[in-house]
Amino acid sequence: MHTALNTLLVDDNAEVRQALREFLHELGHQVTEAANGEEGWELWRAPGAGFNALVSDFSMPGICGVTLSERIRQHDPKAAIVLVSSQRDNPDLLRRVARGDVVFLHKPFTPLDLDRALRGAADNTTPRVGVDEKPITPAPVAPMRSLPHRPPPSVSAHRAPARGQRVRASWRLPAAAAMVVALASTAWLFYPTSPELPAPPIQTVRRSSEIVGLSPTGQLDSVPHSLHWESFPGASAYRCTIYGVDETVLWQGRSTEPSVELPQEIRSQLGPGVSYYWRTEALTTTGGRLAASRLVRIDLALATEPNPEEIR
After folding, report:
1. Three-state SS at 119
2. What value does the CA radius of gyration of the chain take, rounded to a whole number of Å?
3. Where are the alpha helices (DSSP H) in 104-224?
4. Contacts of 259 (CB under 8 A, 6+ apart)
5. In angstroms, rounded to a whole number, what is the distance separating the alpha carbons of residues 59 and 96?
6. According to CATH, where is 2.60.40.10 located in the chain?
7. Could you give the C-alpha distances from 260 to 113, 240, 271, in angstroms and in order?
8. What is the C-alpha separation between 309 and 312, in angstroms, rounded?
9. If both were cysteines, with which of 177, 204, 230, 301 could 212 make a disulfide (CB 3.0 to 4.6 Å apart)?
10. Is residue 35 predicted with pLDDT exceeding 90?
11. Where in the chain is the domain with CATH 3.40.50.2300?
């Protein structure tokens, strides 16, 4: 069982910070929040804080995630650091990920992705190579010992067979091959054929910690009225969440069935020509998370003006 981490969560977006806090609580970690890098740095340095993990947004005003991670790495070289962002090609971020200083998690992601990133960062507790330090040079590898060389046999060591011996050998080989073919053909003709076994049924393999979202998905002509997914064994309830393209939580509801009706208040917020994401989580009787689905994307089509000819 994994040990709970005393985690400092830093993000300037309150709604994203709330969603990340719920993820971390469900994973069993202790969470302390900060709205920006300056506040996060003060909390980390506070006497008796005892943080051992950082989950921070990469892009923030003031002290950004990279600067904050550098300060924390100097303060505590063994801290587990995870930076989250929707960017992939930032040179500062790529350089720190390549050095192994931080673990990068690309938005959007699931609680399972966050758990794997935190555990990977926590397990890698060896000292990192700093910016001005020289990389560790591996010890030279001893050359492999070559096998002893054996000279090829002399041609004079093998004498050519006599003419009569060569003729007898060339006659015996076709005769033996013909006899083997004849015996195999006879056995095939008289040997009873075995009954054909039925093919095993094809089973759908599903990850034990993943729920399959059914509908809606993909391009939609209108705002959906409900969400549907496959039931998960042992779930006493389900929690469904709808996100915007910027990972903003738009709505969250619960249901005891593998479906949920969307209230009019959220349906009125889903405008045409915009993409959204939804995900459901299976919960225990105490509210703990059993499993979660992947993010399901829906694209609402733009509303079109009716054609007067078609109305007639």
Report:
1. helix
2. 33
3. 111-123, 163-190
4. 226, 227, 228, 229
5. 15
6. 210-300
7. 25, 8, 20
8. 5
9. 230
10. yes
11. 6-123
CA distances (Å), origin 42, targets 10, 17, 174: 12, 18, 91
Tokens 């000292």 sit on residue: 127
- CATH number belonging to domain 6-123: 3.40.50.2300
Sole residue written with tokens 């609680």? 111
* Spatial CA neighbour of 238 closest among 259, 217, 265: 259
Handedness of CA 121, 123, 125, 131 (dihedral sign): negative
Q: How many CB atoms lie within 10 A of CB 76?
A: 14
Query: What token pair was written down for 57?
Result: 């947004």
Amino acid at 300: L
Query: Which residues, in sequence order, are CB contacts of 101 under 8 Å at separation 6+?
Result: 69, 70, 73, 81, 128
What is the structure's pLDDT at 273? 81
- Look up residue 130 and give its two tokens: 């700093």
* pTM score, whole prediction: 0.41
CATH class of this structure's domain 210-300: mainly beta
Q: Which two tokens stand for residue 9?
A: 């969560």
Angle (CA) 112 291 54, round 5°: 25
Question: Which residue in 17, 22, 110, 26 sits closest to 296, CA to CA?
Answer: 110
User: How far apart, in whole angstroms, are the C-alpha atoms of residue 274 and residue 303?
Assistant: 11
Closest CA to 93 of 126, 127, 60: 60
Q: Which of 2, 47, 69 is nearest to 29 (CA)?
A: 2
Task: Give the span between the Cα atoms of 77 and 100, in whole angstroms.
Answer: 12
| Per-residue pLDDT tens digits for 105-136 | 888 888 888 888 888 888 864 333 333 333 43
